[in-house]
Amino acid sequence: MATMKYAAAIVDELYRSVERIAAEEAEKLTALILQSDKVFLAGAGRSGLIGRAFAMRLMHMGIDAYVVGETVTPGIGSSDTLIIGSGSGETASLVSMARKAKSVDASVAAVTIAPESTIGSLADMTVKLPGSPKDKAAGTYTTIQPMASLFEQTLLVFYDAVILAIMDKRGLDSGLMFGRHANLE
C-alpha cells in the first residue's frame, strides 16, 4: 500500500511543479520551434532520455528534429534551434554544445531549474522549471523524490504540453501523426 501512497505524492508534487511554469516562456519556446528549420535536442542522463522522447514527438508532427550525438544527426546551422534540458545548467558537455550552436548563430533554448546558470546565460531563451537541485547545499529540497526526479518528470510533462500546443497551432491530431510512427518495430 505504501507504494501507491508514494505514487499519489509524486503526482501531487508534479501538479504543483507544473503550476509554477511561466506560460510566456512556454509560448516563446513553442514559437521558436515553429520558426526553426531543424530542432536539436540535448540533455544528459535521464534529461537526455526525455529529450529523445520529445524529438520523437516533434518528428511525428513533421518537424525536422534530431538528438545530438546520434550518427544520423546533421550539423546545426543559423536557422536551427538547440534545446537543452538540464536541471543544473552546468553539465560540461552541454555547455560545450551551447557554445558550438551559438558559434554558428543557431538559437539556443535552455529548459532548466537554473536560468542564471552557464547554459542559461548562453541561451537565447530559457524556460525555468521547478525542481530540486541534485546538491542539497545548492538549495532546499521540496520533494520526497531522489535527486532530480521532480525536474525530469516536469520536463517530460512540459515537453508533452509543447507538443499539444504545436498540434493545436498546426491543426494536427494523433491520427495524422500516427502516419509518421515507426513501422519497422
From TrEMBL:
Residue intervals passing through the bilayer: none
Classification via PROSITE patterns: SIS
Origin: domain of life: Bacteria
Biological process according to GO: carbohydrate derivative metabolic process
Record-linked Pfam families: SIS
Keywords associated with the record: Isomerase
Keyword set includes Magnesium: no
GO molecular function: carbohydrate derivative binding; isomerase activity
Domain SIS: 29-172
Classification via InterPro entries: PHI/rmpB, SIS_dom, SIS_dom_sf
Family membership noted in the UniProt record: Belongs to the SIS family. PHI subfamily.
Stored PANTHER family: 3-HEXULOSE-6-PHOSPHATE ISOMERASE (PTHR43443)
Protein name in the entry: 6-phospho 3-hexuloisomerase
Species in which this protein is naturally found: Paenibacillus beijingensis
